[in-house]
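Re: the request from the purification team.
They wanted to know what the chain is likely to look like in 3D before they choose a buffer screen. I agreed to run a prediction and write the result into the notebook, where they can find it.
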Amino acid sequence: MDFIAFLSESKNIDWWQQRDVVCGTGSVYPLLFFSFFLERCKNHSIGPVQILDLSEVPCDVASAQLATSFLGVRTSYWLKNITELDTKKRAYWHSYIQQYHGPNCLLLFSEKSFDQKTEKIVEFTVPEYLDMTSAAPVLNALVPNETKRCSVALRTVFKKRRKIMLDELCQLARYIIVSGSELDQFLTDWLDVIIIPESSLFDLSKYLFARNQEDFFQEWSVVGPRYGELFWIAYWAEIFWRAYNFSRLSSLGLHDQAKKFAVRLPFNFIQGGWRRISLNELKEALHYVYMLDADIKNGSQGMSFLNVLYLKFFLRQFDDKIVS
């Protein structure tokens, strides 16, 4: 099912009564969107939703709970962390869900689509990015009865961005709700803090892949301190991951598949710059970012190590072996 159609139809409680499984599918799990989604289910559609963490509850216990209703009352369950399970458990739950016929309603996110779909099992595709046309009905669904204020916010955002991530849109929705009559002032003072201008992100990655140290660090000195280290870890992890896959597929001549990874990559890289950076270098840079993420979670200060990441890339120190 189309994402926007799902948002529209799922407002109707009768729609839910006809579903046993409702599953969002996509390549990236949008945490903020599903927080919004479950809140809306609770307040406007199906009532309270019980959280069932499949990474903590044994399969047999969870299966028995889902197969039982209390006095015939239908319960909605959010199946948490299914994507974090090992291969065997994930296969078990995928099979179980595909054959599920009540008595309750199961809600979940899965990177893998179901093989068979029925009226009782509904899948909707969760987009990673939205342009202005597709973002408008989504934001209006997130912030109902505020069409004019949503339109003002979107026009401001898309003066600086071509696309916006779904979770960024959800974050914007939260601020629209709390800003009240001060929306215009809020957008002037805080929008660039909440949603980093796309031009700045493209400039950073463009200068990095072109090994233009002077312009890179000049831009970094302005943009870097505005956002936390976790934001930058997530950003560079995505950029190196996309760059690696784009380069790998392009080198194999699979250009149509490579285009799927081109979003957020700088134009100079896509147009041929990828040939000047080895696959191994991109892979080891990504490995280093993952190491930084682990170190930060264990209490290290990440901003100084980000500067080390940049210097190692400029000096081609990722070309030889995994950095330790």
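For the purification team: Residues 176 and 182 are 9 Å apart (CA to CA).
Please add any questions underneath this entry.
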